[in-house]
Amino acid sequence: MTVKRDVTVPARKYDFIQIWRGIAVLLVVYYHFSNRVPQEYLGMDSDPFLVFYSGKLGVLVFFIISGYLIAKSLSHSQNLARFYAKRISRIWPLFILASLSIFLFLQFFEPPVVPSGPKKFFVEERDGLDLFGSLFFLEDLGFRWMDGVFWSILVELKFYFWIGLLAWFRPRSFARDFAILSIAMSAIEMIIGLSEMRFLGPIGSGLNGFFIAQYLPYFAIGVLLLTNKHRPLLSIVIILALAQALLKSAANPDFEAAGTAIFTLFLAACLALDAALLQSRLFLHIGDNSYGFYLFHQIIGLTIIKALSGYLSYQVAIFVALVATYVLAVSASWIAEWRFRQFFFDRLMTIFTLLKMEKLQLARSEK
C-alpha cells in the first residue's frame, strides 16, 4: 500500500517523522510480544533472547509526533469543524475495522489469560456491549476496550479536542498557552501523585482522565517544535516529560537496563542496515502503516505466539507474529483507512455544520 504523503510537511522532514513512527510502533509491539505476558502463560519454556521493557516509551514518541503534526494541521484548517472532521476521519474507519476484527477473532480463538499480578491480561471476556463501547470510545463510562492498546487513541482524541478549542479561543497564542497549561497541569498531577494525601486522589484522577495531564508535556513538545518559538517553555516541558517518564520507569518492577541496552543496539543495527541497503524503505513502510500495526497487533499477535508454543522457539514465534500482524494491518489499512476516510469526513462535516461549528474560525499557527 502506498500511503499519501502529507503535502504540508517537506519530503525530508516527512520521511524522518515516518521513520520515527516506525521506531515507535516497533517499541510498543515488541514490548507486548516479548514482555507483556509472562512466558509461562504463553506456553514457552524461557524468555526470548531479545526483550524490551518499556513499551510506553513508543507511545510517548507517538504523542510528540502527534503534537507536531496536529499543530501543523491546525494551520491548514479553516475552521474547527474541518479540523475535527479531518482528525476523526483519520482515526475512526480503521479503528472500527480493528475493533470488529478483534471481536470476531475472539469468537474463535482464545488469547493468553494472566489472572492476577502486575501483568494481569485479558481476565474478562469481551462481549457485544464492550464492542459498542470501543467503537464509540466510551471507556471513561466503564466500557472495556476490545484491546487494551486502544487507550492511547482516546488520549489522542482528547488532545485534538482541547487544542482545537484553544486554537479557536486563543488563535494568536494557542501554542504558548497550550504549553503553559501543560506545564501547570502536569506539575500539579505529579505533585499529587507523589504526595500521600488520599483526599487529593480524585483531583489527580480528573486531571489524568479528563485533561490527560500526564501526557500533555509530550504533545506540547511537538507543538512547540513546530512553532520554533518559546524555547524556555520548550525546555520546561521537556524536563517535565523526562520527569514523567522517569516516574513511570521507576514504577516498573521488571525494568532491566542491560536487556534494554541489547534491544536498543539491535534496533540501531536494523536501522543502519535499512538505511544502507534499502534507503530506509523498511522503516518508512512500517511508519506509514504504524497506526494499523498498533491497533491490530496485541491480542492477535499474542494468541499466535501462544499457538506456536511447542513448535517454535519464543524468539521465532515473535518474528512470525510480527510478520502476520503487520500483513493484517497493511491489508486492513488498504481496505478501510484510505477508502472510507472521505466518506467519514463528509458525514462528520454534515454533523458539525448542523452544529454551526464551521463558524468557529481558526487562525494560522504561530510562526
TrEMBL record:
Keywords: Acyltransferase, Membrane, Transferase, Transmembrane, Transmembrane helix
Gene Ontology CC: one annotated term: membrane
Residue span(s) of domain Acyltransferase: 15-333
Alphabetized InterPro entries for the sequence: Acyl_transf_3_dom (IPR002656), Acyltransferase_3 (IPR050879)
Pfam assignment, any one: Acyl_transf_3
Molecular function, one GO term: acyltransferase activity, transferring groups other than amino-acyl groups
Gene Ontology terms: biological process: polysaccharide biosynthetic process
Spans through the membrane: 14-33, 53-71, 91-109, 149-169, 178-195, 207-226, 233-251, 257-278, 290-308, 314-336
PANTHER family: ACETYLTRANSFERASE (PTHR23028), ACYL_TRANSF_3 DOMAIN-CONTAINING PROTEIN (PTHR23028:SF53)
Official protein name in the record: Acyltransferase
Species, as recorded: Parasphingorhabdus halotolerans
